[in-house]
Structures are given as structure tokens and as C-alpha cells.
Design a protein that fits this description.
Layout lengths: L2 E6 L5 H11 L3 E9 L13 H10 L4 E7 L2 E6 L3
Parallel strand pairs: 1-2
Antiparallel strand pairs: 2-4, 3-4
Helix pairs in contact: 1-2
């Protein structure tokens, strides 16, 4: 079943974030919101920067746009298809 919002705040490792994103992102509806906790630019502990890396990847993607940043959480809107 498609979802309107996806909030990521689990495994913070690059591999864990990438795996979770690949598994769940196809369920996010067009115009849906993807929220990435702990994704703001800052110093991260080793292997604890997965959400930041995904944020940087999505900033260059045409299918997502950054809509807001609140504290350490980045909100992206998935493009309408």
C-alpha cells in the first residue's frame, strides 16, 4: 500500500540507510514526504553519517526536492509523476 510520508531515523550507517531507503522508497507516493533525521551538515561519528549521505544524494536527484530543514531533520518532497 502506498504511503504519504516516510520518516527515517533507524540505522545510521551508510549501508543501513541505503538498504532501508531502497526497500521502502518505492512505497512513497508521488508528492509524498521523505523525512531524514540526523541529516544536517555537521561532523558525524565514523559510520554514523548515512542519513547525511542520502540527503546529499537526493539534493542532486531530479525526483526529490528539499522543502524544509527543521533542527537536524531534512524534509524532501517526491516529484509528481
Amino acid at each position: 500500500m502506498p504511503i504519504d510520508m516516510m520518516f527515517m531515523d533507524g540505522d545510521q550507517s551508510p549501508e543501513g540507510v541505503s538498504a532501508a531507503y531502497e526497500i521502502w522508497s518505492h512505497w512513497l507516493k508521488p508528492n509524498g514526504v521523505l523525512a531524514l533525521h540526523n541529516s544536517n551538515p555537521r561532523e558525524y561519528a565514523p559510520e554514523h553519517d548515512g542519513h547525511f549521505r542520502l540527503r546529499e544524494r537526493l539534493l542532486g536527484a531530479s525526483d526529490y526536492s528539499l522543502t524544509e530543514e527543521v533542527g537536524s531533520t531534512s524534509f524532501f518532497r517526491k516529484a509528481r509523476q
